[in-house]
Amino acid sequence: MSSANLHPMLNVAIKAARAAGAIINRAALDVEAVRISQKQVNDFVTEIDQASEQTIIETLLTAYPGHGIWAEESGREHGARDSEFVWIIDPLDGTTNFIHGFPVYCVSIALAVQGKVEQAVIYDPTRNDLFTATKGRGAYLNERRIRVSKRTQLKECLISTGFPFRPGDNFQNYLQMMSDVMQRTAGLRRPGAAALDLAYVAAGFTDGFFETGLSPWDVAAGSLLVTEAGGLVGNFTGESNFLEQKECLAGNPRIYGQLVPLLAKHSRFAGVADKMQVAEAAARAHAAEAPAADGSEPTETPAAAPVRKLTRVRSKAAGDAPQA
């Protein structure tokens, strides 16, 4: 779709994303000179994140001063607080990649109207790839219409994900999820930028994506790209109201439908029985890895005994002959 046919608000978002991308590309020429600070363990922010965000906000509010802003670094301190139009911004998704010179990162900008995402831009400055979507008008990569993949069998699929990296993350649960998915697919990838992961699902480069611990600015733009490209996006149990639930699952419809049963039991919103099953599996894995009290190597933990189905037995009436 040519720029002349784009929604005016999408055009402004593209202008903001390209301006931020120019800042990022200049900094990437000498990334070792970039000042870096740490929000928490393994969670970095750079002066480039902040400069990129400032440029995006200034561009958006110059065009739409009555709109609200919800950005990764500055939160909601800019723009109108009570507007039904809210721009959701990740100025540099994949900061850890960026500071290592690993060229997988992007700018993500979405516009939510009354809580529903209606415009989306994801810009990859390293490749000059521009992903755009307007609700009801399809998804595009560099003005070319994109669609999710047509694969129908999980064993043929390439799935992307993100690993837990913060203190307190449930590593055992994530290892179980990875195990469930890896042995059923053609491959699992961890590029390191969730917004770009979702854009790649929309373009059909990968067939599905899942990750926990994500914030709205990580997934807002990408989620619209996926749905406008014919895919599905939700939480691990398949519910579509996922934006602030810190878990995201996306894929083409057939693959999404096969991933939900694999991941639902790992969801924060899973039922009690499913959560108990996951907890028991994690405990068995932990016991198998832990050294014995005498310092010897751990022995293999026997498989759990099969659960016996309880049935009600009718009492024998008086006079019945005893069974042999």
The number of domains: 2
**Number of strand segments:** 14
> How would you state the average pLDDT, rounded?
85
CA-based gyration radius: 24 Å
Distance between the termini: 81 Å
For the report, how would you describe the main beta sheet?
A: 7 strands, mixed
Shape: globular
Binding site for Mg(2+) 1: 72, 92, 218
EC number: 3.1.3.25
Family: Belongs to the inositol monophosphatase superfamily.
Protein name: Inositol-1-monophosphatase
Description:
Its cofactor is Mg(2+). One of its GO terms (molecular function) is inositol monophosphate 1-phosphatase activity. Pfam families: Inositol_P. It comes from Variovorax terrae. It is a single chain. The protein is an alpha+beta fold and 324 residues long. The chain folds into two domains: 143 residues, Fructose-1,6-Bisphosphatase, Chain A, domain 1 (2-Layer Sandwich), CATH 3.30.540.10; 113 residues, D-Maltodextrin-Binding Protein, domain 2 (3-Layer(aba) Sandwich), CATH 3.40.190. 33% of the residues lie in helices and 22% in strands. A seven-stranded mixed β-sheet has the order 3-4-5-6-7-8-9, with helices on both faces. A five-stranded mixed β-sheet has the order 11-10-12-14-13, sandwiched between helices. A hairpin with a 2-residue loop joins strand 5 and strand 6. Helix 1 packs antiparallel against helix 2 and helix 5 runs parallel beside helix 6. The longest helix is centred in the N-terminal third of the chain and has 21 residues. 40% of the residues are buried. The C terminus is likely disordered.
